[in-house]
Amino acid sequence: MLVVVLTLGLLGRVPGVVGAGTKETPTPKPIGGLTFSDETEVTVVNVDVFVRDRKGNPVTDLTKEDFRIYQDGVQMPISHFALLTHDIIRHYYRLPVPGRPEPTPLPEDLKDLEIRPIFMVLYIDNQNIRPLDRNRVLRAVREFVRENLHPPVKMMVVSYQRSLKIEVPFTDNVREVLSALRDQRLKTGGRTDKDSTRAEIVDIMNQALEAERERPTAASQNAAEIRRAYELMRAFAGEEANDLTFSAGALRQVIAMLSGLDGRKSIVYISDGLPMTPGADLFQQFSAVFQNTSVLSLLAQFDRSRIFEALTSAANAQGVSFYTIDAAGLQIQSDISAESRTTTTLTAITPGRSVYQDSLKFMAEETGGQAIVNTNNFSKGLQKIANDLFTYYSLGYTVSSSGSDRVHYIKVELPDHPKYRVRYRRRYVEKSLETRVQDMVMTSLVFDVDHNPMFVEVTSGTPAPATSDRWTVPFHISFPLRKVAMLPEGEDQVGRVVLFVAARDIKGRQSDLQRQEHEIRIPATEWEEARRERFGIDVNLLMESGTYNVAVGLMDVVTREASYTKTLVRVNPSGRKK
């Protein structure tokens, strides 16, 4: 676990002059030499709607009048409407259109069209996949990349196997993405070991059952063997539940990375599924083999559906859709064992398969994506994802921001077209300014965020030993005083800022976000001189050895302005013990 603790340092001013600048707003009012607006913030809520016919083909002949959109049960006037198709997008970016040798310009009636960027993460969960399944799917995924990685799409490849690794950051370079996908072919898969352990437990169950049949009078000995099978089964479920916690945590980490990006965001999650209820297939097997229904109480004990509810809530909060692919494909279950002369019952098989697939379906359905399950034709499934990338309706409506974090429920209807299938994100999370700043800080740990209107700078000092395995690292964060709103308060000029700091090491481990509020108080008699200087905040981070990106966000409480910057720091690079 990455440990980064923020400790408060001293406030002070350091000399220095930076070029002036002001924030442009609709109705500016002067505050401490800056401008800000106190008007109610109006937000445009964008809802991407995918309309498909009975065969799953995109429907592209609807108009604004065909749609009804509701927020929290109240119908909202549609203020923004656009139909996007692959052909329109090619025109927009002047890309070659199939059948035409040269790019063609955008038609006149679409000159005002705005297309948001698309960020797609290809997530290979090696911890929860069989290598053969993975490699079979990736062949189809590579073709998907060749055909669909062009503006406005950028793709990132990440893998997970006990730890998260960014194989390739967001890029539109097809070769880089294909190379990263090819490199996955040689990696091991964690599901193979789980399959082996599960088979051993089932075999022990069968051996206990056979012994019970052969020596029905040896009750105590038989009970001991059955108890052993029970304990192994329970231990397996516990380990699988523990692995699930870490797997879901890695997915949430990727969601956090995407939080500050402006555009459409999706994760193509490739695995053999995650257990909604770890050990469910074994519990069913044990109950069927030993006619013991009490063991089914473990289903409730190991139910981890809340993990997936939290995961999809996080995805919806950040506008991320899941497209899930069950790499196991279409399977014929057969657990007949010649050695043990027993057969897994149908009641034991069904939960075992669905417990992994149900999570994939849930993740996709709750976030407006699609689940590709029960098929060996992955190319067909990936074509559905491609259709979602380039063929959809963009609906927008305006709302007055409440200024707080709030979940709203969305409903879209086509009252005159009941046979069409309509898919969209069913929740919109309104975010406060502070939440948006926090999201951007977490995103800047991984991606470059070019937004620093307050000219914030951060520098690191020399790490000092703190404990046997941690170091205290000083940081100095500074900004021009004229970039902060200073209000008269008695004989002083007073401003207030909120500082956010987070760190991520090169292994992908991230710290929690640290937050501090700071008051800036300058005597009014010194203000004219002070406003030409920089103000400094000194903080200390308690860090383990390693190389870190340290991201900083600064928010002016009055003007609602925010700035972001980051720095690279190496803590105890020699790795020596203290």
CATH class of the largest domain: Alpha Beta
State the end-to-end distance.
20 Å
- How would you state the average pLDDT, rounded? 86
Beta-strand fraction estimate: 25-35%
Strand order of the largest sheet: 10-9-8-11-12-13
Number of helices: 12
The geometry reads as globular
Quaternary assembly = single chain
Work out the count of structural domains.
Answer: 3
Provide an overview of this structure.
The chain is of the alpha+beta class. The protein has 3 domains: 4-40 and 433-571, Immunoglobulin-like (Sandwich), CATH 2.60.40.10; 49-113 and 405-430, no CATH class; 118-389, 3-Layer(aba) Sandwich (Rossmann fold). It is 31% helix and 31% strand. It contains 12 helices and 26 strands. The strands form 6 sheets. A 6-stranded mixed sheet has the order 10-9-8-11-12-13, sandwiched between helices. Helix 4 packs antiparallel against helix 5 (219-258) and helix 8 (305-317) packs parallel to helix 9 (346-367). Mean pLDDT is 86; it is low at 7-33, 35-39 and 334-351.
Fold topology:
Elements (H helix, E strand, L loop, with lengths): L3 E11 L14 E3 L2 E3 L5 E11 L15 E4 L2 E2 L4 E5 L1 H7 L25 E8 L5 H18 L4 E8 L3 E8 L2 H10 L6 H25 L4 H40 L5 E8 L8 H11 L6 H5 L3 H13 L2 E7 L19 H22 L3 E2 L5 H13 L1 E9 L5 E8 L7 E3 L3 E4 L2 H12 L12 E4 L3 E2 L4 E11 L6 E3 L2 E14 L8 E10 L3 H4 L3 E11 L1 E11 L5 E10 L7
Parallel strand pairs: 8-9, 8-11, 11-12, 12-13
Antiparallel strand pairs: 1-24, 2-3, 4-14, 4-16, 5-6, 5-15, 7-14, 9-10, 15-17, 18-20, 19-20, 20-24, 21-22, 22-23, 22-25, 25-26
